[in-house]
Amino acid sequence: MKINYKIDKERELIIETWPEIITVEDYEHVKLSEFSDADFNSSYDVITDLRKVAMEFDEEIIEGIVNFMKINSNKMKNRKSAIIADSPQVVASSLFFGQKNRNLSVKVSVFSSMNAAYKWIKENW
């Protein structure tokens, strides 16, 4: 199964839905697809729905994602990234991810619902 995304131009938002198990390669593939999408805008905020994820993100996966973000920081800067998670393992991994990418200009926060994530996204920096 792959990561799916939707670009909502009206709300200036990218919504990603992740499957039960992902790899760094899955993440890189979906991001490269987003970057080449005609509707992509690097200033759009992102909501990542991890509620279907059934794995714990180990440090290798988190490091791989953060390294990809560093390499492509010009396409991911000055945005908010809301992570929706409902399992303790995924929440903990998401918080660890937020700590690892502090040096990037992406503000990350974790939520349990789409409504809460969207409300935070729409708040001003």
List keywords for this structure.
alpha/beta, Transcription Regulator spoIIAA, 125 residues
> How many helical stretches?
4
Main sheet: strands, sense, barrel: 5 strands, mixed
CATH topology: Transcription Regulator spoIIAA
Distance between the amino and carboxyl termini? 34 Å
Mean pLDDT: 84
State the secondary-structure class. alpha/beta
Radius of gyration: 13 Å
Tell me the name of the CATH homologous superfamily.
STAS domain
Low-confidence stretches: none
Shape label:
globular
Strand content: 15-25%
Can you tell me the number of structural domains? 1
Range of helix content: 25-40%
* H-E string: EEHEHEHEH
Strand order of the largest sheet: 1-2-3-4-5
How many β strands by DSSP? 5
How does CATH name the architecture?
2-Layer Sandwich
- In the CATH hierarchy, what is the class? Alpha Beta
This entry's quaternary arrangement is single chain
In short:
This protein has 4 helices and 5 strands; from the N terminus they run E-E-H-E-H-E-H-E-H. It is α/β, with parallel strands linked by helices and about 120 residues long. Strands 1-2-3-4-5 form a 5-stranded mixed sheet, sandwiched between helices.
Describe this structure in words.
A 5-stranded mixed sheet has the order 1-2-3-4-5, sandwiched between helices. 38% of the residues lie in helices and 22% in strands. The mean pLDDT is 84. The protein has one domain: STAS domain (Transcription Regulator spoIIAA, 2-Layer Sandwich), CATH 3.30.750. The chain has helices spanning 24-36, 59-71, 88-100, 114-122, and strands spanning 4-8, 13-17, 45-49, 79-84, 106-111. The longest helix has 13 residues, at 24-36. α2 links the parallel β3 (45-49) and β4 (79-84). It has 4 helices and 5 strands. It is α/β, with parallel strands linked by helices and 125 residues long. The termini are far apart.
